[in-house]
Amino acid sequence: MSFVDGHHLELSTMETTVHLGAHADSPIHYHRDGVGIDLRDPLRYVGPAQVVTVSDARGRRIVSSDLAGVRIEAPRVLFRTGTFADPEQWNDDFASLSAELVEWLSQRGVRLVGIDTPSIDPSDDKILETHQAVYRRDFAVLEGLVLEGVADGLYTLLAQPLRIEGADASPVRALLIADPGVLAAFHDFEGALK
Questions:
Q1: What is the pLDDT of residues 76-126, one digit of tens each?
Q2: Backbone angles phi and psi of 115, in degrees to 5
Q3: 186, part of any domain
Q4: In the annotation, is 7 catalytic?
């Protein structure tokens, strides 16, 4: 419905994949025994996050040695690669993450990974090696993030998925807040939940 067409209100409709733009993958997307996005705790996608830039990653998986000298300081790590700059123009050679990196991050208390590309695995990977690693470690996953112009450092992430019953993903509107007071409050909040 539309005011332009003489209707009494605007009413939109949408038909799309749930992997549109910035989105949260659900375990049912990459593992037979996974759960839908409606069963994921939305607090996994809210709280302290660290943005890390990895240069020269085009066409390959990011590994732990790419983070040499980077101290992991948050349970959510978002990778800025710049290898999928124009979502209107598909390119197969975007950066992805390695299963080894997921294991390395897990040992440092990370529970969510995000990336500025369409997938944490390469576009031609049928095994989904990294998705399987995040399933084993029960990580949350964000893909398709827009991190252009975002400086490396600590932020508060707000990227809750929609509660779509049984869905294998959900679009998110991912926001990063640079206020250290908010970051401290979330540390206190997360500690109280444990």
A1: 999 999 999 888 899 999 999 999 999 999 999 999 999 999 999 999 999
A2: -150, 155
A3: yes
A4: no
Asked whether residue 27 is domain-assigned, the answer is: yes
Residue type for position 26? S
18: in domain: no
Q: Which two three-digit tokens encode residue 163? A: 């509660």
Distance of CA 154 to the CA centre of its chain: 16
Point out the catalytic residue in the list 19, 23, 29, 131. Answer: 29
> Which residue range(s) make up the domain with 45?
23-193
**Residue 9 within a domain:** no
DSSP code for 72: P
Q: How many structural domains is the chain composed of? A: 1
Q: Contact, 25 vs 44, CB < 8 A?
A: no
Q: What is the pLDDT of residues 63-89, one digit of tens each?
A: 999 999 999 999 999 999 999 988 889
Q: Which residues are CB-neighbours of 140 under 8 A, at least 6 positions away?
A: 24, 40, 44, 45, 76, 111, 112, 113
Closest among 14, 10, 38, 12 to 26, alpha carbons compared: 38
What is the Cα–Cα distance from 142 to 117, expressed in whole angstroms?
Answer: 10
